[in-house]
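Memo subject: From amino acid sequence to discrete backbone structure tokens
Keywords: amino acid chain, backbone geometry, structure tokens, three-dimensional fold.
Body of memo: The sequence and its backbone structure tokens, given next.
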Amino acid sequence: MAGKPEKLDPVWDHLDRTMGQLFMMGFDGTSVTPHIKTLIEEHHLGSILLTAKNCKSAEETTKLCYELQKIAHDAGHPVPLAIGIDQENGGVNSIFDEIYVRQYPSSMGIAAAGSTDLAFEVAKATAQEISACGINWIFGPCLDVLTNARNQPLGVRTAGDDPQEVSAYGVAFMKGYQEAGIVTLGKHFPSYGNLEFLGSTLDVPIITESLEQLSLSALVPFRNAIQKGLDAMMVGGCAMSSAGLNAMHACLSDQVVDGLLRKDLNFDGVVVSECLEMDALSHNIGVGGGTVMAVNAGCDIVLLCRSYSFQMEALKGLKTGIENVMISKDRIYNSLRRVLKMKSKCTSWEKALHPPGINYLETLQPSHTALSTRAYNGSISVVRDKNRLLPLSNILDNEEELLLLTPLVKPLAASAASKILSESANTNSPEPAAWAQSSSVMSGERVFRELGRSMARQRNGRVLHTSYTANGVRPVHENLISRASAIVIVTADANRNLYQSGFTKHVSMICNMQYTIGGEKREKPLIVVAVSSPYDFAMDSSIGTYICTYDFTETALNSLVKVLFGEFTPTGSLPGTISKSQKLHPSKQHWLVEAFNEDRDANALDTLITAVMEGTPPNQRSELSSATSNSFILHHQEVEESHFVVRNSSTQALYGFCSTYFFKSTGTGVIGALFVDPARRKLSIGHSLHNRAIRTLLQKEGIRRFQLGSRLPSIFLGIPTGHNTERKRLRSWFANLGWNAALSRPICNMVARNLQTWTPPEGMAKSLAGAGSQFDLVYGWDFAGPILDHIKTSNRQGLAEVYKLALSDPTACGIIRAKRPDDGALVGTVVLYNHQSRLSEFIPPLKDLNEAAGGISSPVISPGVGEYSTLLQGLVLLGMRQIKAQSCNACLLDYMDGDGNFDGFSAMGFEVLHNFEEVSCDAATWTMIPPS
């Protein structure tokens, strides 16, 4: 039986005073504003959120905290304010002070260093520093698991994609914070690690995983932190949609707060809502109503970041809710007890009115400086150094030039560079800056200014530095690359800033084509440094030397320079599953896998395809709906294909089928399809087929990479993602076999219907004319040379084979070309085909449309083309016109890169038809193969 609630001091009989303890509010400015003073004095506000906009320096922050506490004390508050802050390190710090507050690596950087003891030390040091300023509540640790690492904005703020690892580091951070006397806030329950973003700021990001799936992965760190004594939890504002759990906003749902968090995970600490000012929440529900819903759901503190009008609306909403008996007083006082219990752990009036301040920070400075250096040195990870380019002093003479290429990005909030944005410098010019040791003038991105200067000092030689943008590789870059003896390229979240990825791949291609005077081929040394997300090129083995720093604060870049020039040997490693040896797990049952025999098995394969389609739920599309056995057989001279079956030798029936292709042009081994009779699933048939496929592909001479999903034949472009439950099942199945689904690449087919009544969007033709390219349509092998040379600028699997099929079929396929008017060089191409073409046999979605249709396939735009989107839209627009002229009523745009921005295609009349996740990895990944 639960005991009676603890009796409260009569001072809390004053309902307004009690209500004030249920809010946390922020304000703009580095000094006390009239609004925040009013909220404390007249509305009894109990908690304050400080951000980087409030914290000018350690000394000013200490003064501000004292003034806030003094106002509360003088207004008769029974207990001090809880003053909270985000101080996650890396790129997320609210207090920055070059003298008194040290910088430490991000959560993922600490995890890369591989020590939970280090995590504890860093967390304790961080908490000591902010506590000295008068802060008593830290918004951390971040407990999210990155189950879809490539596309999540959290990035390095969390320890990685392994639930147990995130949990271990999260608990270590929590214990370190508590050791220094401040209370903790876990975030962002029930996990921001696999949100699906719908586009508009008014669309709420959504979690579609079931409770069972969340329990096995995302909830593990939260559960463990609760068991180890987490003080408070922030519940996010995301939506949730799965069987048995639907919520528009998690923090407003009693299913999530009272049910999942309180009852299922047994959390009895303070629950804080997401900020109710977020656009989607305030727009959909309103702040007053949202406050009532949050408190009724079980939130103890409602967060409102800075708008005074919203803050007043929230106070009014809570009071109205209580007066109208929409909120019980028991609910209010239960929350008050939790808040007071938390405050008793971290503050008292003696402590609040006498913060240690600068004097204490001065005593911490020497040991914390040493800790910061040790943490950063331990986090730097050399993922690959195939040609042993490190240290640079081994391959560069003093008189040779080193080129540094950095992207134009905003500096991190924790960076000193963010403090000097007002300095006059021309950051938009790609013109280079060069330093000898004595030089002090640099152009390019400010945040990397010290990196270039430090590199020049360290090597006692000349460093050229210039920036790059979405305009790609310009002539000035080409000249500098030719001139330099080695190149260092910096990327920062290239997966979300695709121009960085394209630029880096283009420079890599240039470096691979450098020649000495004697004509002997010699690759130019290239080092790529990812200074934020480590996933930029983690799985791209074509980047031979790859280093990760996890943030680009000055301290991180200082450690990077030491690694580049051999001052110490880096020991960091990529955290999570990405760095672990991926192994095929042996099947529970080993089935006899035979090579597919077209004469023997074709009819049985058609029967199996029908069974799979019939076993597909009614609301779900089968990728095999228009496929036949012929759809898998390419007979292409430059593609080696091997297909496998598990069969009943007595009845000749097929129980499972797997198709594999080796594209010699790119060294890519592909699993193009793998499916099993629905009546015989979970018997390890799929495992047996998969193991045989991998072993066969590994024997191919020149194999460099593996891929799930194929452009040719275009049946399964990857793991189907059209249905969330099936998507999760398939991602989990392939992950258990060793594929890293966290680094998937979204791919989709798109369709434009009603083509005969379609007209191009207004203004698009004019935009196309302004792109400065000439377009033509060609047919046949006579035009093959320049086209095949052009597509070599892309290393995507199956491109060359698609183009060769099209060039060999001039009656039913054509190529639209975009050329530069000055020299006629190709800058873009795309393939056109119709239902009579040989190519269409391998693209079943065209038949799926059930009407006269044509297709557009495999666009290739030269790297570095400034008007990339305009040129791509132009090629597609001209293709649509041609298909319409052939009396077709639908146009299929197949195998499109889902990382792109499809607003332009939507405006042209296209909609997404099918979604997939293409997964690829280095062939070296598959080294541990179970016996057959």
